[in-house]
Amino acid sequence: MFDDPARDAWQRPDDVVAALALAPAMTVADVGAGTGYFTVRLARAVPDGVVIATDIEPDMVRYLDDRARREHLGNVRAVLATADDPHLAPASVDRVLVVDTWHHVAARVPFAHKLAAALRPGGAIAIVDFTLDSPHGPPRHHRLAPDAVVAELRAAGLAAEIAATELPDQYVVIGRR
Q: If 0-12 CB within 10 Å is exposed, 13-18 middle and 19+ buried, where does residue 47 land?
């Protein structure tokens, strides 16, 4: 389901990656990477950089390692994270991408602080999650309004706003250091 080709129509991965304004040598963290739907796209977008793909499920981390080898993506590093810590070194990444995961984080402001600490100067975090009325995603009571995500990133010391990127069933919030 994570890599279902039908996902491309509503997820619009090219638009999401474009919203990150990547340069070829950047270091990007894909937090909550799952099977690597975005990881492989990010790895191709930063051919001279590194993609740190994190997940809290050991099986997903193993799968990410296998997938990177299978797809000859030598710039991907899979990392086992925890529910309250993305396991990113301070000032180590230029961009952080969190897709379809933010609503799962229990303590979002402390988690956002850790993501912010991992950013290099000028770095940014992009959070992509489901609109309140999306036909995809978790039950409605688990969803977050984009303004709530903006407030959480601001509480973590980031300048945050809803991005102009338009997705059919989701929004993008960008937080900048």
A: exposed
Counted domains in the chain: 2
pLDDT along the chain (177 residues), means of 10: 73 95 98 96 98 98 97 98 97 97 96 98 97 92 96 98 95 97
State the residue range of the domain holding 91. Answer: 85-177
Q: Which two tokens stand for residue 40?
A: 């492989």
- Verify that 77 and 94 share a domain, yes or no: no
165-167-171-177 Cα dihedral, nearest 10 degrees = -30
Q: State the maximum Cα–Cα separation within the chain, in Å, rounded to a whole number.
A: 41
* Total-model pTM: 0.95
Which pair of tokens denotes residue 139? Answer: 């039950």
88: nearest Cα among 109, 120, 114 = 114
Q: Which residue has the tokens 């799962």?
A: 104
Q: Which residue has the tokens 């090219």?
A: 14
Residue with tokens 């984080």: 105
The answer to whether 13 and 40 have CB atoms below 8 angstroms apart is no
- The phi and psi torsions of 17 (rounded to 5 degrees) equal -65, -40
d(CA 124, CA 118): 10
